[in-house]
Amino acid sequence: MAKKKRLRLIAEMARKIRAYRELKSRPRDSQRFALDYETMRRPLTGKMLPVLAWRDVRRESRLFSLLAGMRMFGVGRLFTRKSWLEDHPEPSYWEITKVKVDYTAENMDHGKAWGVLTYKGNKESEVKEVDKVMYHDWRLVPKHMEQQLKDFQPLPEPPVQYVPFPPLLRAMMLAEHKKAFGRVLAEEPALPLKRDVLLSREYFTNLEQERQRTEGTAV
Q: Mean pLDDT score of the chain, rounded to an integer?
């Protein structure tokens, strides 16, 4: 019988206190992403932006620079990115559903936003936080074009293609299957040319949270 994990109240309280102090001492986004447009450096860190980004910084806008000047901070409107317009013929955009503005920031042009993502014509079902809001490549979708983007029907995905495994790996898999089940594998093993896991920020965040739950709280 597995030993029941004992609840350590003092350790849990210490963890919450450390997390609260870390949160209070962490600089706000308006400080982290502040930019000197003459030198192209972040005042907080002194780091310079990549030279390739200078043109977009001068010509394009951040998401909250657009939201700050709109009614209800743009809730219900569609926003796309310059990089999406250049890379994909299918429509990709965010439909903003919630905005949390940092009122301590100058011009209120920093904060967090949530919405529903439509990427390459495929609309997601869940509301999630908009990422890369500090990038200088956001654009507002004109009102008369919103319905055209929403009515877009993506093409069906092509069938998954398979390729044979490398000879050594194939031999190892066949030997392992024969050792485990006592018979030869009936079907020839094949490798699908499709990745089932999307290596996004949420994927790694969930992995880190799962690791912390498994390891427990340090005293």
A: 85
